[in-house]
Amino acid sequence: MAKSDHYVYVVECSDGTYYTGYTTDVERRVAEHNDGTGARYTRGRQPVELVHVESFDTQSDAMQREYAIKQLRRPAKERLVQETDAP
Question: What CATH fold (topology level) applies to the domain 6-83?
Answer without folding.
Answer: GIY-YIG endonuclease (3.40.1440)
